[in-house]
Amino acid sequence: MVVVVPEEPASENPDNQIDTSVAHPARRYNYWLGGKDHFAADRESGDRIAAAWPSVRTAARENRGFLKRAVTYLAGTAGLDQFLDIGTGLPTADNTHEVAQALVPRTRVVYVDNDPMVMMHARALMTSAPEGATTYIEGDLREPEKILAHPDLTGTLDLSRPIALMLVAVLHFIPAQQDAVRIVRRLVSALPPGSHLTVTNATKDVLSRETAAVYDAMLNSGRTDVWPRSRDEFAALVAGLELVEPGIVPVSEWRPTATTRPDPADVAVYGAVARVP
Hints:
The protein has helices spanning 25-32, 40-52, 56-76, 96-103, 116-125, 144-149, 151-154, 177-189, 209-221, 231-237; strands spanning 82-86, 108-113, 133-138, 164-167, 196-202, 242-243, 249-250, 269-275. The chain is an alpha/beta fold. Helix 8 (177-189) links the parallel strand 4 and strand 5 (196-202).
């Protein structure tokens, strides 16, 4: 299963400074994926969580594998050459622009994240193919209007042409279901027909009763900031859109390329790709 469990609540950081003494979800995720952009606090936190939840690295890898397969479908099959990736995370292998531009070099990508370290590393490491473009916006998913109106977005993407909106492993940081649905609908409303939404979210549906109870206890005590959604709640995020086969499934089961795959309970993340009609 995937349960991101901070040992301490996230602290407010009004000055947008990087605190290397406190574990951060994006850096810890980078560590689990085998990246290099993390500090001792992130590694110590990641190792403690992995000791309690041995499948957490599997979940992180499967979520990342889903991202690669989804982008491959969007660029290679659906023919999209514009991507808006919100909740970018720290750069690692097979970033959105790398996968898309390998198939369609002219692809233009806007990355959005609210962590200054993510933006610093992204600007330094995530360079575009000459034929395409990549832009980085420091923004917050909870403020979709600001993202959509940002001049770097409107100057990079043509909102009159189909866009692939990527919300991968980010919506489960929005606790309230009504807020998550509102945010998705606002973002999708700005996209023309033929656009696609790609989304993943943690779930308890595939967990044993005992494991789900542990998850609930962590949520109630504030020891995890990852809010799971049931299949019905996940379906509400893509309501009104045309689901791409195989629909809403654990990320490891979405158009898999591997013949051997982990048990869904070791992943516990739903994923889907849906087309804007």
